[in-house]
Every structure is written in structure tokens, then in C-alpha cells.
């Protein structure tokens, strides 16, 4: 199959693929997919796209303009229109090249400090040459570590390549759950999503545990709590244009659209006396069934149980965290 002239992405293992379809298939299971999913949960981006207002922070404003239509739940649509462009590198990574010393044009080297020139004698075995090459390269390169992301030319640059996709996925689901059910206990989020399947936390007898022992519920509370605060930080940093996944402290935007529009922004995104805001209603419409499906899958609620009358009656309270009864 003839290779297409496809784009280059630092967030994909191997950086690129033979066809655009293969790139999409890889992107759907990559950090890029989770980046876009987090951005869909941003009240700032939602409000900007809903009203046409521009955030006062220049970095956030740029991100909003580049983000395209985040309202669609279909990643492929967003990737085709936006993701494939904002994550693409403008420059391909440099490669080793053979210089023709008789051609002055080819003798033009990279900027100082970005390359070294070596002479390779062809009268020596390849094995010996590789050994010598590694030794010489180590001398030149050992004090010059390269951060591949610093040299990224993508509009949306990754914050780090040291991440765990499973952990990011858990952060995402925990955040969705807390956004949809703000009052639910954190340990119950972990229980419903089966974040730590080995921990049994429903209807446990607290008297079984001494002061020196850690209650499983406390363990789960701590685990899910870490996922939750990292998720909030990741979203905040993404909004501010600080890359993704970025779990460092983030102060956020105190008045994202300025003092003039802040009251309207709060009214549209904050619950009042138990009444959901417009943004929260949108979240519920977009993500609640998605969350319910995840809970059923993680707890293996299927088959006869799924049509059991007691299950059907009790399941909404189980999801909301107001009851631990399910059958």
C-alpha cells in the first residue's frame, strides 16, 4: 500500500501512521482523545461557545478559538475538523543524513548546538562503528537532555509524555460523576465506578477495624480523592493553555469573561438552591446516560438483573449515592 503524506503527532507511539484512518484509530485510544474529553467538561469553553464571548485571558481565548465545536460527543467528528490540526506538528523531527562534502548546499548545518559532525571511516566494521558512535554521542549529548515537547511546533502541545492513560481515564470518570452529583460521597464514586475492585466498602461493619487498621472505605476515599483533585487541576491547566495532562497546581480564572459578564457566567454555570444551572442541565443531557452505562458495565449489572423490578426501582438512588441497596 502506498504511504500517504500524513501528519506527525508526538502524542502517538511511533509519531505517525501510513494513512489518515490509521492515525484516527490510534488517536481515539490516545492521550489526545482524553484531552478533548476533558475540554468538553469545561464550563468556560461551554459558555464561550454558547454566548460567543471571548475569555479575558489571552491563552484561554486562543484555546477557545482553536478548540472548534466541542459540543459533539463523537470524537471522530472533532478530530477530523479540529484535533488533527491542533495536535499536528508543523515540523518533522530531524533525521541522520549523509553529507556530500563536494556539495556546498548540503554542507549547510543545523543551528549551532543542535547537531554534531562526525567522520565515519568505511574501513572499519559496522559493529565497531556503532560502538564508537555511541561513545562519541554520549560525550556530546549526556549534558544536553532533549525535552521533545519544548521543541514541539503543535498548536496544542502536550505537557508531558510521562502519563498513564488508565489514570487519566479514571480521573475523567470521577470528575464527570462529581459534576453530575456534587453531593455524593467520594468513596461512593469509587465504589460505583469500581476504581479499586478489591475493596469491599458497601455496608461494612466499622467495628471490625481497630484504630491501627485502615478502613477500606477510607482507602477508597483517599484514592478517589487523588483522582478528583488531579482531574480538576488537569482541566484547569487545559483551560489556561498549560498543556495536558498537567496535574500541577492551577489557580484558574477568577472572572473568565471579565467583571461585566461574571454575574451572567455564574448564573449559567452555578446551581442555586438545588436548581441546576443551564450548564449542569447540559452536562446531565450529554453525560448522564454515558455514566449510567459505565456503572452498569463496571458492576456487571446485566442479564436478568437488568430487568429485575427491585433493581430498576433502586438503581437511580444507587447511582445518586443516596442508597447502597441494589437488589
Query: Which bin fits the share of residues in helices?
Result: 40-55%
Cα shape: globular
Q: How many strands, what sense, and barrel or not for the largest sheet?
A: none
How many helices in DSSP terms?
Answer: 12
- What's the Cα radius of gyration? 26 Å
Q: What is the mean predicted local confidence, pLDDT?
A: 85
Low-confidence stretches: 144-148
Distance between the termini: 55 Å
The fraction of residues in strands falls at under 5%
> What structural category characterises the helix and strand content?
mainly alpha
Number of folding domains?
A: 1
Total count of strands: 0
Sketch the topology as an H/E string, one letter per element. HHHHHHHHHHHH
Report what the structure shows.
With about 325 residues, this protein is an all-alpha fold. It has one domain. The chain is about 50% helix and about 0% strand. The longest helix is centred in the last third of the chain and has 24 residues. The protein is globular. It starts with 19 loop residues before the first helix and ends in a 7-residue tail after the last helix.
Quick recap of the structure?
By secondary structure, the chain is an all-alpha fold.
Secondary-structure topology with pairs:
Blueprint (H helix, E strand, L loop, with lengths): L19 H8 L3 H10 L2 H9 L6 H10 L7 H12 L39 H16 L23 H16 L5 H7 L23 H24 L18 H12 L8 H21 L10 H12 L7
Helix pairs in contact: 2-7, 7-9, 7-11, 8-9
Notable characteristics:
mainly alpha
Amino acid at each position: 500500500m502506498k504511504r500517504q503524506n500524513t501528519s506527525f503527532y508526538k502524542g502517538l507511539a511511533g509519531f505517525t501512521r501510513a494513512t489518515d484512518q490509521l492515525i484516527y484509530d490510534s488517536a481515539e485510544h490516545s492521550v489526545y482523545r482524553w484531552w478533548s474529553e476533558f475540554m468538553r467538561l469545561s464550563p468556560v469553553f461551554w459558555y464561550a461557545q454558547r454566548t460567543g464571548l471571548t475569555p479575558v485571558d489571552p491563552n484561554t481565548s486562543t484555546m477557545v478559538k482553536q478548540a472548534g465545536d466541542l459540543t459533539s460527543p463523537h470524537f471522530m467528528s472533532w478530530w477530523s475538523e479540529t484535533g488533527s490540526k491542533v495536535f499536528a506538528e508543523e515540523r518533522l523531527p530531524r533525521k541522520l543524513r549523509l553529507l556530500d562534502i563536494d556539495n556546498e548546499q548540503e554542507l549547510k548545518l543545523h543551528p549551532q548546538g543542535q547537531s554534531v559532525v562526525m567522520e565515519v571511516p568505511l574501513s572499519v566494521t559496522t559493529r565497531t562503528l556503532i560502538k564508537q558512535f555511541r561513545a562519541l554521542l554520549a560525550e556530546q549529548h549526556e549534558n544536553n537532555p532533549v525535552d521533545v515537547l519544548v521543541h514541539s511546533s503543535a498548536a496544542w502541545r502536550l505537557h508531558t509524555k510521562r502519563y498513564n492513560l488508565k489514570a487519566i481515564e479514571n480521573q475523567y470518570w470521577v470528575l464527570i460523576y462529581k459534576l453530575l452529583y456534587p453531593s455524593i460521597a467520594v468513596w461512593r464514586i469509587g465504589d460505583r465506578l469500581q476504581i479499586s475492585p478489591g475493596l469491599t466498602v458497601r455496608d461494612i461493619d466499622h467495628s471490625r477495624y481497630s484504630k491501627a487498621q485502615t478502613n477500606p472505605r477510607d482507602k477508597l476515599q483517599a484514592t478517589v480523592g487523588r483522582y478528583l483533585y488531579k482531574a480538576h487541576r488537569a482541566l484547569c491547566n487545559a483551560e489556561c493553555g498549560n498543556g495536558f495532562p498537567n496535574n500541577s497546581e492551577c489557580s484558574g480564572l477568577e472572572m473568565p469573561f471579565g467583571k461585566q459578564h461574571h454575574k451572567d457566567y455564574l448564573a449559567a454555570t452555578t446551581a442555586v438552591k438545588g436548581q441546576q444551572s443551564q450548564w449542569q442541565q447540559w452536562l446531565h443531557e450529554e453525560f448522564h446516560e454515558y455514566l449510567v452505562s459505565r456503572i452498569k458495565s463496571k458492576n456487571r449489572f446485566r442479564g436478568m438483573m437488568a430487568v429485575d423490578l427491585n433493581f430498576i426501582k433502586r438503581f437511580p438512588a444507587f447511582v445518586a449515592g443516596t442508597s447502597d441497596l441494589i437488589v
